[in-house]
Amino acid sequence: MATATSTTKAILPLHHHHHHPPTAATKNGLPISIRAYKDFILEFHQNQKPSNRAIKLAESLSNMLYQQIERNLNHRTSNVPRIEDKHDTPTMSPKEDISKKWQEIHGSNDWNNLLDPLHPWLRREIVKYGEFAQATYDAFDFDSFSEYCGSCRYNQQKLFEKLGLTKSGYEVTKYIYAMSQIDLPQWLERSRFVDTWSKDSNWIGFVAVSDDEETRRIGRRDIAVAWRGTVAPSEWYDNMQRKLEPIGQGEAKVEYGFLSIYSSKSESTRYNKSSASEQVMREVMKLVNYYNGRGEEVSLTITGHSLGGALGLLNAYEAAKNFPGLPISVISFAAPRVGNIAFRDELYQMGVKTLRVTIKQDVVPRMPGIVFNESLQKFDDFTGTLEWVYTHVGVELKLDIRSSPYLKKGMNLVGIHMLETYLHLVDGFLDSTTTFRSDAKRDVVLVNKECDMLVDELRIPHNWYQLENKGLERNFHGRWVKPTRDPEDIPSPIVESYNNVLEMQDS
Amino acid sequence: MATATSTTKAILPLHHHHHHPPTAATKNGLPISIRAYKDFILEFHQNQKPSNRAIKLAESLSNMLYQQIERNLNHRTSNVPRIEDKHDTPTMSPKEDISKKWQEIHGSNDWNNLLDPLHPWLRREIVKYGEFAQATYDAFDFDSFSEYCGSCRYNQQKLFEKLGLTKSGYEVTKYIYAMSQIDLPQWLERSRFVDTWSKDSNWIGFVAVSDDEETRRIGRRDIAVAWRGTVAPSEWYDNMQRKLEPIGQGEAKVEYGFLSIYSSKSESTRYNKSSASEQVMREVMKLVNYYNGRGEEVSLTITGHSLGGALGLLNAYEAAKNFPGLPISVISFAAPRVGNIAFRDELYQMGVKTLRVTIKQDVVPRMPGIVFNESLQKFDDFTGTLEWVYTHVGVELKLDIRSSPYLKKGMNLVGIHMLETYLHLVDGFLDSTTTFRSDAKRDVVLVNKECDMLVDELRIPHNWYQLENKGLERNFHGRWVKPTRDPEDIPSPIVESYNNVLEMQDS
Hints:
Chains A, B: GO terms for molecular function: galactolipase activity; phospholipase A1 activity. Chains A, B: InterPro entries: AB_hydrolase_fold (IPR029058), Fungal_lipase-type (IPR002921). Chains A, B: Belongs to the AB hydrolase superfamily. Lipase family. The structure is a homodimer of 507-residue chains. Chain A has 507 residues and is α/β, with parallel strands linked by helices. The first copy, chain A, is built from 16 helices and 13 strands. Chain A has helices at residues 13-19, 32-47, 54-76, 102-105, 120-138, 159-162, 212-218, 234-237, 256-263, 276-293, 307-322, 341-349, 380-383, 413-417, 419-428, 493-506; strands at 26-27, 30-31, 170-178, 202-210, 221-227, 244-246, 253-255, 298-305, 328-333, 353-359, 395-399, 473-474, 480-481. In chain A, strands 3-4-5-8-9-10-11 form a seven-stranded mixed beta sheet, sandwiched between helices. In chain A, strands 1-2 form a two-stranded antiparallel ribbon. In chain A, strands 6-7 form a two-stranded antiparallel sheet. Chain A is globular, with a radius of gyration of 28 Å. Residues 1-53, 72-77, 231-236 and 369-388 of chain A have low confidence and may be disordered. Chains A and B meet through α3, β13 and α16 of A and α3, α10, β13 and α16 of B.
C-alpha cells in the first residue's frame, strides 16, 4: 500500500479476556466476547497480508460475522419484534375443520361473541377472503404504457398460482369486467394508446368456488366473489357523494357512482355487452344451480376493499333478491357508506350478513356522508333529507394502527387505507383492549407492498411490489423489448365464457 | 348471453373488395384490406357462438391481429421512427480494426477533422467508454434500506457479465472506493442503518484493461478507468463551487469538493485506508509496468459522467505527472468545470487529451463558474480573481436533444443530463447540421432507464430500470425475504487487492 502500514499491535481475543473478566464485563454496552471478536476482525483486516487463497474465505466469513454482530447490537436496542425469526415458519395458521360452525362464522348470529375477542377461526376466514380481494390489486395491470392497462395480467386459470394462492382451496371460475356510463374521473384505468384491449372496461373482480377438500372443511360449497377497489380513494372522493339512485322496488337508494359501475353496459364494447351485475349474477346462478343439483349446500360470500366493498354490497343486495334462501354474507374492508336506511333495512330483511372491517384512523369508511351520517337520523323527518342519509350496514370489526408494533403511527392516509394494512391488523387482532398478538403468522413484509407503513427498523423497502424493469426484457441482441403477452393471457370475453361452459360440462 | 344478440349481418372481406377496388381505395385513411379484416374480426366476435375448442385459438389470434392492425394505424400517423423494426438487429456497429488510427481517435491531433462529421470509428469508441461509465450507475446499490447501500451490487469478476458488457473486450481488474473528508451533503449514498458495509466510503468506479483480441483491434493495450458521478447534479450544485484548492507544485488549482472526494483517506475506514487517487495510481502503475515489461504499447483512457468527468480530469492530471510519456486521454460526458487556467495549461503541456461531450441544453457543463467562466478572462488581472476563474479543458463534442426524433423536447433537466441520453445522441450524431442518423443501432429504450425522455408514442415506461420487488424474494413458506448477498459479492478490500496480485502472477 502507498500509505504507511498500521503501527498498532495485533490484539487477539485472549488479551481482552485477560483484561476484562468475561462474566459481566461490557464495553460500550457490548458483551466483551463480541467486542473481542470485533477487534479481532478489525485487526485481522489491518495487519494480515495475503499469503494464500484460504484468506479469501476467512475474509468473507469475517465480513459476514462483523455484520451479524452489528446487526444483533442494533436489534437489541429496538422495541420492534424481529421479523427474521419467523422467516422459516408458515404464514398462516393450520387449517381447522370449521364445518360445524360455519353459519356463525358467516354471521348467522350477527357475530355475537365472535369479534371481541376475535375467534381464531373467524380471523382465518376474514384473512382468506381478504386475500382474494387483495388478488384483484396484485394482478391488475396499472401500467398506462401497456396496451393491456386495466386488465388482469394473468388468465383465470393462472391467477391463484401466480399470486401464491393455490393453497386457498378455491378455483377461479369467472372474471368480471365493469364500465361506467357516467363520467367518474380517475376511476377507469386506461392505456395511453389507441390500440388497447378495451377502451371502456376494466377488470373488476372474479368469482371463485371452493374445491372438494375446502368444501368439506368449511361445511358447504362456497361461492366467493371478490371486487376490486381503487388504489387512491381521494380519486373518487369528490365524485361519488353527490347523488342517490333508487335500487329495487321500494324506498332503497344507493350512491349513483357505485351503481353506475355495477350496472353499466354497452353493446359497442367487447367486455361489457353485459354489465358487471349481469356477469356475476349469471355466474352465481350457474354455480348455485349446478351444486344444488348435486344436493350440496351452497353459500355466497362477497368480499371487497374500499370501492370494492361498496360494489360487494350492491352485489349482495341483488343476489338476495334473486336467490331467496341462499346464505349470503359480505366481508368488506375499508368500505364507504353505500345507501340509505331503506337500503340497509332491506338487506337486513333479506338476511344478508355484513361484517365491515374498518381501521379507526382510516377516513374512507366515513365516506360518503361524513356529515349526513346515522347520527343525524333523528332529524330526518324534520328536514325531509332522508334520502340523503347514507348509512352503514352490518357489524363492525374495528382495528387500530396503534395496536401493531410494526406500523408507523403517522397519519399516512394512503397507507392506513391499504388492504394489506387491514389484513396485517386482522392477523394481529386479539381483542379491543390487547395489542398485537405475538403469534401472528402473516408475513409483515406484505404491508409495504404499495406504501410506506412499516417502521424503518424493519428495513423493508416501501412500495416494493414491482416488476423487474417494468416488464421489459433483454432479447438475444441485447435489446430491451416488451414481451408479447401469452395468447391465453390476453383478455377474451368469448374464451372466458366458453371455458366456463366446457368446465361445467366436464365436471 | 343475457343481452340481445347482434342483428347486423356478417360482412366478409370479399364484400369490401367488391365495393371498393383494392388498388387505391381507402376508408378513414386505411387500406381497404385492413379495414375489411377489422370488420371481419368484429363480426366474428359478435356473431359466433362457441361450438368447439378450436374457437379458442381463433379468438386469440383474432385478438392479436386486431391489435396489430390498430398498432399499425397508430404508427402510420406518427413522425417517430418505429423502434420495433430494429428488435432483431445488433445494438452496435461491427467492430473494425482501428489499430492504425488509434492515436488520432484518442486526440493526438486534437480530434481535428474527426468530430464534424463524427468519424464512425470515433463514435463507436466514445460509446464504448461511455458504457463503462454507465456501468458505474447500473450496478450501484442506491437502496438506502440495503446494508450494502453505496457499494457495487456485483463483484468485479461478474460486473460486465451482469450488465451485458462481456462483448466490450475489457476485463475489470480493480474497484475504486472514495470518501470525502469535507462535508458534501448528498454526495455519499448511505445506508439508513448502523450495520452497513461501510459508513464512510462509496464505490466510485473501476479500472479495466483490454483483452488480447481487443488489444489487437485497437492497436495497443488500453487501461480504462471509469468514474461514477452523481445522479442528481442539483445535489452538489450548491456545495461545490465555492473554493479552489491548489494541486501540483505550480499555480494550478481545482474545485475543493472534487479534490476532496478524489484524495481523502482515513486509517479508521475499511475501504479508504488509501484514497481513490492512491488506489487508482497503484493499479495503473501495476498494469503499466506489467504490460511495458512484456514490450507492449500501453494507453490510459479515462471516462466519467458529470462528477465522474471531474474526477477523471483529476485522475488524468495525476497520471500525467506520474507516467510521463504514457498516452492519456479523457472522454467525459456532461462534466462541469474543474479547475483554473493554470490547471488547464498544465494538462495541455503534459499532453493530456480531453474530449468533452456535452449537450447544449444541459446546465451541468456550465457549472461551476456559470458566472466566472472563460469569457471573463480578460478582466482577471484587473480584478485579481484569477483563481476563481474555472475553465473547461479540451475539445468539445456538442450534442443537441432537438436532433433526435425519439426525445421529448421539454426542459427536463434531469433527463437531459442523464448519461444514457448522451450515449443516445452520440450514437445518432452525424454532423452539426444533420439530424439523427437513421442507421443508428444503439437501443433507444435505454434512454428511459432512469428518466422520462422518450416520446410517449414509443410506449416505453419511464424510470423502468428497477429490480423485481426491490430485491425481495418469496421463500419456501411464501414469506418475502431479502436474499443474503453471495459472499463473493460483499465488498472486501483485502480480497479485491489480493485477487489482483494472484491474477497478475497467473498471467
